Amino acid sequence: MRQDKITSHDIIVAAKGIPGRIPTATRFRGFFAKSGRMFDIVAKDISNGRLVITIIGK
Question: Mean pLDDT across the chain, nearest whole number?
Fold first, then answer.
């Protein structure tokens, strides 16, 4: 229910919008889905790109 109305496109845009390199799993706060729902993501960089570990809906 907490991830309701957060699309994969919203997640990809948020993850790509984080500048720099993320060597360890880090929580980034304050992203907004197109639906208006606020969410946080936990992500880290791996050899193939950026890995989103979890989405935390508000």
Answer: 94
Long-range contacts of 35-39 (CB under 8 A, 24+ apart): 35/5, 35/6, 35/7, 35/10, 37/4, 37/5, 37/6, 39/3, 39/6, 39/10, 39/14
The candidate with the shortest Cα–Cα distance to 51, out of 15, 17, 2, 21, is: 15
- Domain-wise residue ranges, the chain: 8-57
pLDDT digits (tens, 9 = 90+) for 34-45: 999 999 999 999
Note if the pTM is more than 0.90: no
How many helices (H) and strands (E) the chain has is answered by 1, 3
